[in-house]
């Protein structure tokens, strides 16, 4: 069996995530010497996982609203740079930020939300005008469209144009009337793109799939045919996963199977029915590049007295954090990722999600273990002398 090709060579664009926490430059004459007098910059930042740390299902847990309020000043301005670093997704970052703001009672900006599929935007130049399929719960096609992809279909819509592609569809009585009505409408309508002759250039698993059986079947059809279901075997189109979590913590007491489990199922089946092994690229934690990019994004929250022309005067805008804290609930994802990223990352493990052990995790021990996210924030502020 040939080895699986695995790549993580994409970097988040800082310009797309630039935040308005910058001050106007002071006027100066051409004869005056420019002095670099930046505003005080925080020596530390925080990345929060969401599921199992901030939320349990849709409800706040672990005193998360109180914990986050401690990161703002009395006037409501951001005192400590932080963002949410989650492998979840399925909706645009702007909508996730709005939902978090409402539930947690603090103002969260879209630039403070990094989801598993956020790096997909870096593939826009390659697939902007190519037909692509987006898989998963929520609104995966909308997510990709907002990133700028011009020809994107959800797998739900794409599959609906191929008669009998799902041989057991008639037995799926669990489907809602709304979904059935939508499916019937799509089957009777003319496809927005020529799906019968236009090859799928890439498939993106944006969020956790809902109908595993149908999705595995259709993805196998696309991937082994070279991009058009029903055709003879062809070269496999690229396949991208937003994350590779085997399990995650939701509202149910025990952990739920995640995108990594779906990937294992798809890969096992594909490798049995195709002459070549499945090739894919997986993003999300624990890949070290996610943490390196998070460091760059957190630096954008730092205020400066100068505009972009400051770099022309020789004044550096770079900023090195003394410490970056990753607060998560999954040792195999959050702690492992922080450890692989190395300095300046410091991992904190909560007991409100996947991890519930009395002691530290044996294989991937965190730098600190606490009961809740509020306890984690209190520890950080005390350690940094800002409490």
Structure description:
- The protein is of the alpha/beta class and 387 residues long.
- It has helices spanning 64-69, 93-104, 124-127, 140-146, 155-160, 177-188, 212-225, 259-273, 288-299, 331-341, 373-383; strands at 44-48, 55-56, 59-60, 82-85, 113-114, 131-135, 151-154, 202-205, 239-241, 247-248, 256-257, 281-282, 323-328, 345-350, 368-370.
- The strands form four sheets. It has a six-stranded parallel beta sheet, sandwiched between helices. Strands 7-6-8-9-12 form a five-stranded parallel beta sheet, with helices on both faces. A two-stranded antiparallel sheet has the order 2-3.
- The model is unreliable at 1-37 and 304-317 (pLDDT under 50).
> Strand order within the widest sheet?
5-4-1-13-14-15
Residue stretches low in confidence (pLDDT < 50, at least 5 long) are 1-37, 304-317
How can the largest sheet be summarized? 6 strands, parallel
Radius of gyration: 23 Å
Say how many strands there are: 15
Report the total helices: 11
Features of this protein?
387 residues; alpha/beta; six-stranded parallel beta sheet; five-stranded parallel beta sheet; 15 strands; 28% helix; 13% strand; elongated; disordered N terminus
């Amino acid at each position: 069996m040939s080895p699986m090709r695995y790549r993580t060579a994409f970097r988040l664009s800082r310009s797309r995530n630039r935040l308005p926490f910058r001050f106007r430059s002071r006027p100066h004459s051409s004869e005056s010497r420019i002095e670099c007098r930046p505003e005080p910059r925080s020596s530390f930042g925080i990345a929060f996982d969401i599921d199992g740390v901030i939320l349990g299902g849709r409800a706040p847990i672990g005193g998360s609203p109180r914990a986050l309020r401690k990161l703002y000043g009395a006037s409501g301005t951001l005192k400590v740079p932080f963002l949410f670093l989650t492998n979840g997704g399925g909706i645009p970052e702007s909508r996730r930020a709005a939902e978090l703001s409402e539930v947690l009672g603090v103002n969260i900006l879209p630039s403070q939300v990094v989801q598993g599929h956020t790096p997909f935007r870096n593939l826009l130049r390659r697939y902007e005008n190519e037909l692509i399929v987006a898989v998963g719960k929520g609104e995966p096609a909308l997510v990709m469209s907002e990133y700028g992809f011009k020809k994107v279909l959800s797998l739900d819509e794409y599959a609906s144009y191929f008669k009998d592609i799902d041989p057991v569809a008639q037995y799926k009585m669990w489907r809602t009337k709304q979904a059935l009505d939508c499916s019937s409408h799509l089957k009777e309508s003319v496809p927005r793109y020529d799906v019968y002759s236009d090859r799928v250039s890439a498939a993106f698993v944006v969020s956790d799939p809902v109908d595993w059986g149908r999705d595995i079947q259709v993805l196998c059809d696309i991937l082994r045919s070279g991009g058009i279901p029903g055709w003879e075997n062809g070269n496999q189109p690229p396949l991208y996963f937003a994350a590779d979590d085997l399990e995650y913590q939701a509202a149910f007491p025990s952990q739920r199977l995640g995108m990594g489990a779906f990937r294992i199922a798809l890969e096992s089946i594909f490798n049995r029915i195709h002459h070549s092994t499945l090739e894919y690229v997986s993003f999300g934690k624990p890949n070290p590049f996610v943490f390196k990019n998070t460091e760059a994004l957190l630096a954008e929250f730092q205020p400066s007295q100068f505009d972009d022309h400051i770099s022309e005067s020789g004044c550096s805008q770079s900023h090195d954090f003394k410490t970056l804290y990753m607060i998560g609930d999954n040792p195999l994802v959050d702690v492992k990722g922080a450890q692989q990223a190395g300095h300046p990352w410091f991992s904190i493990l909560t007991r409100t999600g996947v991890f519930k052990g009395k002691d530290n995790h044996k294989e991937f021990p965190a730098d600190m273990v606490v009961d809740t996210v509020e306890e984690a924030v209190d520890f950080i502020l005390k350690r940094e002398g800002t409490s």
